[in-house]
Design a protein that fits this description.
Layout (H helix, E strand, L loop, with lengths): L1 E2 L4 E2 L13 H5 L4 H11 L21 H8 L4 H8 L7 E2 L12 E2 L2 E3 L5 E4 L3 E5 L3 E2 L3 E8 L5 E6 L17 E5 L4 E4 L1 E4 L9 E7 L4 E6 L2 E7 L11 E7 L3 E5 L13 E2 L5 H19 E4 L4 E4 L11 H17 L3 H18 L2 H18 L2 H21 L7 H14 L2 H10 L1 H5 L18 H4 L24 H35 L11 H18 L10 H25 L33 H7 L1 H8 L1 E3 L1 H15 L3 H5 L6 E3 L21 H5 L2 E3 L12 E3 L9 H5 L23 H48 L5 H31 L3 H22 L11 H15 L13 H15 L8 H14 L3 H9 L2 H11 L8 H12 L12 H6 L16 H13 L3 H32 L8 H27 L2 H4 L6 H20 L4 H8 L9 H16 L4 H13 L5 H6 L32 H24 L19 E4 L4 E2 L1 H8 L14 E4 L2 H11 L1
């Protein structure tokens, strides 16, 4: 082993400690007297008085082994006791106590490799230990990893459990349940305190007195049970029952008990003899570090441990060799590592300055690697890091976070040692411990124990506000008292934040050590080991989405992401400082060639263009021409077939893959959560690791014979050169397209780390950010409840003392809960929603935007980009806008408006991009754009994008609705119009406010923010070509006909169910679909209103071939809607009267106001000629009823022409009842329309002539025959044939192809026939 500190090599194996041939040379290393003093100083016992120099035996290296044997001699009785463990009176079973995985369980459970950790995987699984006790006092500890439903205690071997009854539910079984705060033994009573994740439960049994008790974190909860059954055949096993996904870890004595209890023995005896030896040897080792030989002066010099250096002195080396010869085997035992080595190192960290402590730790690690075998030091380091993890993760939160800081500093000191760091990174951190745990700061579930009351003595909570931006916040004046409370609360939050920042900085230091790429002297640098492990970590979590036990907890991911971003930006900007051609981290992005050159494994994640194998086949020419990448057809075919084989693999075969977890109660092995044990990796995406690509370097044109073959390597096979590249190899960036700059952005390895960070956000970080908002929502709800209670207290008469007492009690409960939640909210804001965390998410958003922009420039190769880049761009903006308020606002971020505009341009361009084929991502883009146009700031951003892109976006929105998700498109168009339509300026549904004006929980809509600019683009495009408007409007009318018909059919079913005598419950899903169809009908009507307002000539200019047909179809649909909704005591009225939950939006107002807006635009605002045409078409429709128009103003019957309108009937619907939402001018227009239709209807009735049935259209029987088809000669009205020809060219009757349609008049046809005769 090489010791870098000493600059020499020394091997334990090659040094013979007691060689006779070397006696003279060894004893002559230093003066005999000095050597004797030195060895006596080092190897003096800690519990014996120092021996006088004149009476003690002379020590040298020949008799040192004998002296060490005497020093380490343990009492024979203790030795025999340790050797005969398991035969202790009062205990039966193996000496090593574990969970009984062979037969002592019920249900399905997942047990850790060491058989001490267990996770419930069924309804209520039970498991007991392998050892039982029948006499004496015994204790074991349980670490609570999750705080759900569990019953922990003792049972006998005769207890029978099932999926409903566990420990404590049968005779002779006893349990404590900290979730429900009860104790169980057939019956149950209140007992103890509530536990939380990270707590330690001590289970004590006294079989001498027959009592059983429990402790929580070392504090006794009192005697739980007395008079336990004892005697022949009565022995008690530790046991637990736990529900699905709950987890614990047992400590029967394999590690030092966290809270030992005087008089009680752990079930597994500690290695007492080895513990004494290890402590003696540690004392000797510490003596070596504190004493230095001075051969010149012939004396011993006392020194500080931090100043000690291994200088290659033979005496010191041989002394250490003797110590470690005995010490090394002991340091492989977890109990001794935790009790001896861990305690020593923590003491070192506390004794001096951080630099001094780190120096000592480095010296210790150097000596471990120098004098111990590789297997020994690796076992020692593995146990050391596992103990550190356990202590860090489950230590209680104290006000100064001192415990967490203590363990992190020791972790940093260990990882600062290069050789130890590389070993731990390669074999422990990601493989066993899940190093992301070290980057997590857990939230205290008990505010009192975390000291938040002292840290934040004054509480405050914000008033309820929307998280949709500043525009929607309620403005309320702040009193001076509230201002003082808020400022005091903010000061407390700042104190808390500063303490948390200390921990966060230590965590970033750990990542900086793991990302070090300068430590490649003895092999591969740490960064490249980290990249391999990090990619595996991402693969495991990406391939196991939906299988929750496999996932790294999302709260860990959030903290890990922020620390990773901090370390990544540090190294990025550091590289820029030494390489001026590189870019700053503020301008970071992922070059597009990373997505198609196969150098980075994206597992089975979906690409924008579909499967990678499909893209490589269809875009191979583009890869060759733009990126100089040639796909090997044979390799690609093999990869494709392999991928197909995997997809067809039957489920049982896939389930039988070997896994490290042990499943009990079932035949299939099931995985453990990755953060509790070693990871079980899913299969790799094989086509990425086996499909070879041939790459041509872009520096010079090569002939076919000069093409260079480059294999695509898996993460484990890659070297530094494969990532960073070399003189003739661009590494990760091979296949650069011509649109990309030649100079590097940064180190290629940092690009891969950045890519992984973006993937992490997509996997679970965004969902966790949304979940944590629940604390803020709880604060708002309790604040509202408190204000309501205080209002009731003020209004309550003083004589009603009973009510006052109840209200006062409620006020106290709400205040206490708010105090607790406001302090917890401060913790959440400091760890999750701080300004720095917001800037991290904003930086990721900007990185994704640049990456998408650069990828878009590559043309068809854009399809290779993974979908999650677009998802992260959409979701990170949503998180910034919705989750970080009201404390922080997205508008405060630098470059906010520019970022909004860039995101708007991406959404506008790609929501209809043909290169994107995934249904989910296309829907996400559409929904994001629909949300974007709802709010003024983001809508202005859409208006700021280049005109060409705006027009292209509107053109995509106006494409026919068939064969695409038209509902979202329609919502976007409606939101561009909201605020301009007839009575379309409300923020809450007017009919709900009218019936429940005091209800503050009514659904709220965003304030209208119409875009006249985009409306103008829409008008221009509808006028542009002869086919744009007809195809778009025909599809809108088709969807309106479908949506309203579906709605009517559903309310018929609802009405029938409501009228049955037996009690019926309408399915909530059916109610939701019904309301959705109604909302769709209203939105389609609003789009028609917008179209008629912007481009009325589409319907009214009959010089256009399709105008009459569109107008007739529109009139038909409007009359159908009016007749269905306005009929007296009709189906619609009855369903609205039921007021069913889920149908709140269904009412007369939304749909009638939309129809009224269309009629007013046609009959009042249009030109005279257009109004005349619209009136004639409307009146000619056989479904037209003037009574339906009168219904709008609350009139049951049409008024007499020329008379004033009577007052509306208060019992009926009337637009005049909604004057807060409908202006006086709009009401006047409705009255004008009604008068016009009344007059026109009377005139039409007087002028109409009877028509025989033979002359009516045989299709609709509403209009006379007016068209004849050629060449077949069949006839119909023009409206029917024009509508039919929009979708079909075959005749109604004979299915012959219609070549032309000619006008037909009965009189002209009769005269032509007679003249021909």
């Amino acid at each position: 082993m090489a010791s870098k500190g000493a600059g020499m090599a020394f091997s334990r194996k090659s040094h013979r400690l007691t060689s006779d041939a070397e006696k003279s040379r060894v004893t002559g290393i230093v003066h005999e007297k000095l050597l004797d003093d030195y060895l006596h100083r080092i190897f003096s016992s800690t519990d014996r008085a120092p021996t006088a120099a004149t009476s003690r035996k002379l020590l040298n290296f020949q008799n040192l082994p004998e002296h060490l044997d005497q020093l380490l001699h343990v009492d024979e009785e203790a030795e025999e006791e340790e050797e005969s463990q398991g035969k202790v009176e009062g205990r039966l079973g193996p000496s090593t106590v574990v969970l009984d995985h062979t037969g002592g369980f019920e249900g399905l459970l997942l047990v850790d490799d060491d058989l001490l950790g267990v996770i419930g995987h069924s309804n209520f699984g039970t498991i007991r230990s392998t050892t039982c006790v029948y006499k004496g006092k015994w204790v074991y500890e349980v670490l609570i990893s999750s705080q759900g439903l569990m019953q922990i205690g003792w049972c006998t071997i005769n207890c029978r459990f099932n999926q409903e009854e566990g420990v404590g539910d049968t005779h002779n079984s006893y349990a404590y349940d900290g979730n429900r705060v009860r104790k169980w033994n057939v019956t149950t009573t209140n007992y103890g305190k509530a536990w939380a994740a990270g707590d330690i439960v001590s289970c004590l049994i006294d079989l001498d007195e027959g009592t059983l008790s429990f402790c929580l974190n070392g504090v006794s909860l009192g005697t739980a049970f007395e008079n336990l059954s004892r005697g022949l055949g009565m022995a008690y096993f530790p046991a637990i029952s736990l529900s699905f996904k709950e987890s614990v870890a047992f400590n029967f004595g394999s590690r030092p008990l966290r809270y030992p209890v005087v008089g009680y023995r752990p079930l597994q005896d500690p290695p007492s003899a080895d513990l004494v030896r290890a402590q003696e040897l540690l004392g000797c080792f510490q003596a070596v570090l504190s004493v230095e030989l001075d051969p010149v002066q012939g004396r011993l010099v006392e020194k500080e441990s931090s100043e000690w250096q291994l200088q290659g002195q033979p005496t010191v080396l041989l002394t250490l060799a003797h110590i470690f010869h005995r010490f090394a085997p002991l340091l492989r035992k977890v109990y001794l590592v935790e009790a001896v080595l861990m305690s020593f190192l923590l003491g070192v960290m506390e004794a001096g300055t951080p630099a001094q402590a780190q120096s000592v730790v480095h010296q210790v690690l150097d000596l471990l690697w120098l004098f111990m075998e590789d297997c020994e030091v690796r076992d020692c380091l593995r146990q050391l890091m596992m103990s550190l993890l356990r202590l860090y993760r489950f230590s209680p939160i104290v006000p100064d976070l001192g415990l967490q800081i203590r363990y992190l500093r020791l972790t940093i000191a260990i990882l600062s040692h290069e050789k130890s760091r590389k070993f731990l990174l390669s074999h422990v951190l990601f493989d066993v411990l899940r190093s992301v745990v070290f980057f997590y700061i857990k939230s205290p579930l008990r505010v009192e124990e975390a000291g938040l009351q002292e840290l934040i003595p004054t509480t405050w909570w914000p008033h309820r506000s929307s998280r949709e931006g500043k525009d929607s916040k309620e403005v309320k004046d702040e009193t001076s008292e509230e201002r003082l409370r808020r400022r005091a609360y903010e000061r407390g939050c700042q104190r808390l934040k500063k303490r948390i920042e200390v921990v966060e900085e230590l965590q970033v230091q750990i990542l900086k050590l793991l990302l070090n790429n300068q430590d490649d002297n003895g092999g591969e640098a740490s960064r490249y080991i980290f990249l391999t492990k990090f990619r595996k970590f991402l693969q495991e979590n990406a391939s196991s989405r939906g299988n929750m036990p496999m996932l790294c907890p999302p709260e860990y991911m959030v903290c890990f992401l922020h620390r990773l971003i901090s370390a990544l930006r540090y190294f990025w900007d550091e590289y820029k400082a030494s390489n001026p051609c590189a870019t700053f981290s503020e301008e970071a992005y992922i070059p597009p060639q990373v997505f198609y050159n196969g150098k980075v494994d994206y597992f089975d994640l979906q690409r924008l263009g579909g499967l990678l194998s499909h893209l490589r086949k269809t875009l191979k020419d583009d890869l060759a021409s733009k990126a100089n990448i040639l796909i090997d057809p044979l390799e690609l075919q093999a990869a494709t077939m392999d991928d197909l084989d995997e997809d067809e693999e039957p489920a049982p075969a896939a389930a039988q893959r070997p896994m490290q977890a042990l499943a009990m109660g079932g035949a299939l092995p099931l995985p453990r959560p990755s953060w509790l044990s070693s990871p079980t990796l899913g299969r790799a995406n094989r086509f990425l690791s086996t499909a070879a690509v041939s790459l041509m370097t872009p520096r010079r044109p090569l002939s076919t014979s000069e093409k260079v073959k480059v294999r695509t390597l898996s993460a484990e096979q890659r070297t530094r050169e494969d990532i960073e590249g070399s003189q003739w190899n661009e590494g990760l960036l091979v296949g650069r397209p011509p649109e990309e700059p030649e100079q590097p952005l940064t180190e290629n390895s940092l690009l891969e780390v950045l890519d992984g960070a973006i993937m992490m956000y997509n996997l679970s970080v965004h969902q966790q950010l949304g979940k944590m908002v629940g604390v803020s929502d709880d604060v708002n709800e309790y604040a509202m409840a408190l204000r309501d209670t205080e209002d009731k207290l003020r209004r309550c008469p003083k004589r009603r003392k009973d009510i006052l007492a109840e209200l006062t009690k409620s006020q106290k409960v709400f205040s206490e809960k708010l105090d607790h939640l406001s302090r917890r909210l401060a913790w959440v804001h400091a760890t999750v929603y701080s300004q720095e965390k917001m800037q991290d998410i904003y930086w990721l958003l900007r990185v994704c935007l640049r990456t998408i922009e650069h990828g878009d420039r590559t043309g068809p190769l854009f399809a290779f980009m993974p979908e999650f880049y677009l998802s992260v761009a959409i979701n990170s903006y949503s998180a910034l806008k919705n989750y970080f308020g009201p404390v922080h606002s997205i508008e405060e971020l630098p470059g906010y408006e520019e970022t909004l505009t860039r995101l708007a341009a991406i959404l506008a361009k790609h929501f209809a991009d043909t290169r994107i084929v995934g249904t989910d991502i296309r829907d996400s883009l559409m929904q994001a754009l629909a949300s974007y146009v709802c709010y003024p700031n983001s809508l202005r951003a859409v208006e700021r994008i280049p005109e060409e892109q705006r027009i292209a976006m509107v053109r995509s929105l106006l494409a026919p609705y068939e064969q695409r998700p038209w509902a979202q498109t329609n919502w976007i168009l409606v939101r561009l119009w909201r605020g301009c339509g007839f009575g379309y300026r409300y923020t809450r549904l007017p009919h709900l406010l009218k019936t429940k004006p005091e209800d503050a929980n009514l659904p709220s809509l965003q304030k209208p923010c119409p875009s006249t600019l985009l409306q103008q683009h829409m008008a221009d495009l509808l006028r542009e070509g002869p086919d744009v408007a007809p195809s778009f409007l025909n599809s809108v009318l088709n969807q309106l006909n479908w949506a309203f018909s579906e709605f009517i059919g559903m309310i018929q079913e609802i009405q029938q169910a409501a009228e049955r005598l037996e009690r019926n419950f309408v399915d909530s899903r059916q109610l939701k679909v019904c309301a959705t169809c109604f909302d769709l009908s209203v939105s389609l009507l609003r789009v028609l209103e917008m179209t008629i307002t912007l481009v009325p000539e589409i319907f009214l200019d009959w010089a256009q071939p399709t105008s009459e047909m569109l107008l007739r179809r529109l009139a038909q649909l409007l009359n159908q809607v009016l007749n269905r909704v306005t009929a007296e005591r009709n189906l619609f009225d009855r369903v609205v009267t039921l007021r069913l939950p889920g149908l709140e939006s269904v009412d007369h107002y939304p749909i009638l106001v939309a129809v009224t807006g269309i009629l007013v635009r046609l009959l009042v605002h249009g030109p005279a000629s257009g109004t005349e045409r619209a009136t004639s078409v409307l009146l000619a429709d056989p479904c037209f009823q003037l009574r339906s128009i009168c219904y709008l103003l609350g009139q049951p019957e049409p008024p007499t022409p020329g008379t004033a309108l009577p007052a509306p009937d208060q019992k009926h619907f009337s637009l005049q009842s909604y004057t807060d939402y409908i202006s006086v001018e709009e009401l006047a227009q409705v009255e004008q329309m009604l008068a016009h239709l009344t007059s026109a209807s009377a005139q039409a009735a007087a002028a109409s002539l009877p028509t025989s049935e033979e002359d009516l259209c045989p299709i609709c029987y509403a209009h006379p025959i007016s068209a004849v088809f050629q060449p077949c000669g069949h006839k119909s009205c023009k409206a029917c044939i024009n509508q039919h020809l929009m979708n079909n060219k075959d005749c109604f009757f004979c299915k012959a192809t219609i070549m032309s349609v000619e006008d037909w008049d009965k009189a002209a046809s009769a005269s032509a026939t007679s003249s021909a005769a």
